[in-house]
Design goal:
By secondary structure, the chain is α+β, with helices and mostly antiparallel strands. The protein is built from 18 helices and 11 strands.
Length: about 600
């Protein structure tokens, strides 16, 4: 069975040496001293390794079942959920007014990686609850917040998001679920939603569904969509639970991965619901949840790559196979360990350099979000809005690929269920699809985000990188990082110019290259992260430090990324600038 060890030391390096969170001029960050965050990560690591990870394979093999209208989760999930809830982990960054601890989102993101890396399917239950909390907290009335949030913060109740319908996924303007006003402030919702993660379970007393629906007489399309709270059980005035609402589970989907999380068909039959925010403004409210979820899904791509990588390293060191071409390394044994072979090293270095760069990117992005929300920094919010589809799309695309490479290290054993490596690949696969498929993320980046506010945020992003390169132009220790970063940044800027020039004449020229553009952005972002980490590692080596090998290894891993991974920007650039003609050459009937 695979194992999992919390990468707490690497997280601490990113938080305190690269990001210097304790010195950030952001409300609440002065509490993030190294001793405090280390204690939090240590406790989260214990839960991840000792409680959640042992249930990962259990959940994968047993899955969820539907019995008499109630979803049953795998054995052990309820006890683990209660322990997770008792630790207050879901409320780490929630509002103290509703029982939260008021910590920055950045710290919650770090602990979230540990939980997701140890058991992604389990962590989706509290994760979706947190997303629903955020939408209600940002957009609901004070009355609704007081009624629902305290029990969601402490995980007495869970939360979901209901968007997709059988006939429409991304195009939510086509939805048919209706919300009829009752004249007393409530609505009756009728319709069907599909692909609802954590749609029901036996872990909590109540499930609080956030449901998109249309109020009759409203505008057509997406402009007529509203958001509603629809509880599984009606909540009485005194806060106790009343009768069962008109919402039920029609089926549990059989799927490729995340078997421990119930993906449900949800039926609404005149279910009582309460409007969140304004009528016909539901997408604005739901996007609060979706944007948080997209950052969280990007983190899932990282977490599964990290878990798969850890096990691939163990196997590569233990498995004896062949001899090192430069000379025997294990003379007492019949063969040398796999890790001596250059192609195994290549795959492991791909994984290691991605995982460490992605972790820095996710935590940096979380800090930008905190900066935007807590310090009211509009520039930070603009940049994280620009890069949200990159975090989601790039990290899940590449994260999935890294789980495949981890499987490949095992050879045939990676394909055999006994070794457990396929679960990381199967679980990671969904992250490329839900919360907006990655092709949609690419279209959002190229078609909307890059031009947002007149391209202001793209320019701020390039200026940030330019300033970093300029600060270190005379530092020879940084040349292996700033030189490739500058070159890759130029490639990306050239593509931006191409989109502006050709995209106006032929929109397909831009859209056909959107996924390549998203990946170019991703590589440049990770190169920027590696540049900042290299700066911190060099500073540590030049001063007092207790672990020089850690910093030397950090620099060596970063150099690998810059030399072996970052040149992919050239390939993406060539594809983009070939235009749309080859992509659109065939008539639809020719396929």
């Amino acid at each position: 069975m695979p194992s999992y060890t919390a990468p707490a030391k690497d997280m601490s390096f990113v938080l305190h040496e690269m990001l210097k969170v304790q010195d950030a001029d952001i409300p609440g960050f002065n509490e993030l001293e190294a001793d405090f965050t280390s204690a939090v990560l240590e406790e989260a690591g214990k839960i991840a390794t000792n409680v959640l990870q042992p249930l990962n394979e259990v959940g994968d093999k047993a899955g969820c079942t539907l019995e008499n209208g109630v979803v049953r989760t795998p054995a052990g999930f309820k006890e683990a959920f209660d322990e997770f809830a008792a630790g207050g982990w879901n409320g780490l960054d929630c509002d103290p007014e509703y029982g939260g601890q008021g910590m920055p989102y950045t710290l919650a993101t770090a602990t979230g990686e540990l939980f997701s890396g140890s058991n992604m399917a389990f962590t989706m239950y509290p994760g979706l609850t947190h997303g629903a909390y955020s939408a209600i907290h940002a957009h609901a009335s004070d009355e609704l917040k007081a009624k629902f949030l305290p029990n969601m913060v402490d995980l007495k109740w869970s939360g979901t998001m209901n968007l997709t319908e059988p006939h429409c996924g991304t195009d939510l303007g086509l939805m048919r679920t209706k919300a009829e006003p009752q004249g007393d402030g409530t609505f009756k919702l009728s319709g069907q939603k599909i692909f609802i993660s954590a749609g029901d379970q036996d872990l909590t007393e109540n499930v609080i569904h956030l449901v998109l629906a249309k109020i009759p007489g409203g505008p057509e399309g997406i402009k007529g969509v509203s958001l509603f709270i629809v509880p599984k059980f009606i909540v009485k005035e005194d806060g106790s639970l009343g009768e069962r609402n008109g919402v039920s589970v029609g089926n549990i989907e059989e799927k490729m991965g995340i078997h421990g999380n119930a993906t449900c068909v949800m039926n609404y039959d005149e279910a009582e619901g309460y409007l969140v925010g304004e009528e016909h403004k539901g997408m604005r409210a739901m996007f609060t949840m979706m944007n948080e979820a997209r950052l969280g899904v990007g983190m899932q791509g990282l977490s599964q790559a990290e878990a798969a990588y850890q096990n691939a390293v163990i196997y590569a060191k233990d498995r004896l196979q062949g001899r090192d071409v430069t000379g025997t390394k294990n003379p007492e044994g019949p063969a040398d360990p796999l890790i001596v072979h250059p192609d195994i090293r290549r795959m492991l270095m791909n994984q290691k350099s991605f995982v460490e760069g992605a972790r820095a990117f996710v935590l940096w992005g979380a800090m930008m979000l905190d900066k935007g929300h807590l310090a009211d920094d509009k520039e930070a919010m603009g940049i994280i809005s620009l890069l949200t589809p990159v975090i989601k799309g790039f990290l899940t695309d590449v994260g999935y690929d890294m789980t495949v490479q981890a499987q490949q290290v095992y050879g045939g054993h990676g394909y055999i269920e006994e070794w457990g490596m396929s679960q990381f690949t199967r679980d990671a696969r969904i992250a490329m699809i839900y919360e907006g498929a990655n092709g949609v993320q690419a279209l959002d980046l190229v078609g909307r985000k890059m031009a947002q506010d007149g391209g202001k945020h793209v320019m701020a992003f390039f200026e940030m990188i330019k300033n970093f390169i300029g600060e270190h132009k005379d530092n020879e220790d940084m040349a292996d990082f700033t030189g490739p970063l500058k070159e890759a940044s130029k490639d990306l800027q050239a593509v931006m110019m191409y989109f502006m020039q050709e995209g106006m004449k032929n929109p397909n020229a831009a859209l056909a290259g959107s996924t390549d553009a998203l990946h170019m952005f991703g590589h440049v972002c990770l190169a920027y992260m590696w540049g900042m980490m290299a700066k911190s590692a060099n500073e540590a080596l030049a001063g007092d430090h207790s672990d020089p090998e850690f910093y030397k290894n950090k620099l060596a891993t970063g150099r690998y990324y810059m030399a072996r991974m970052l040149p992919a920007t050239k390939t993406h650039q060539a594809r983009i600038m070939s235009g749309a003609d080859t992509v659109m050459a065939l008539d639809a009937d020719a396929f």
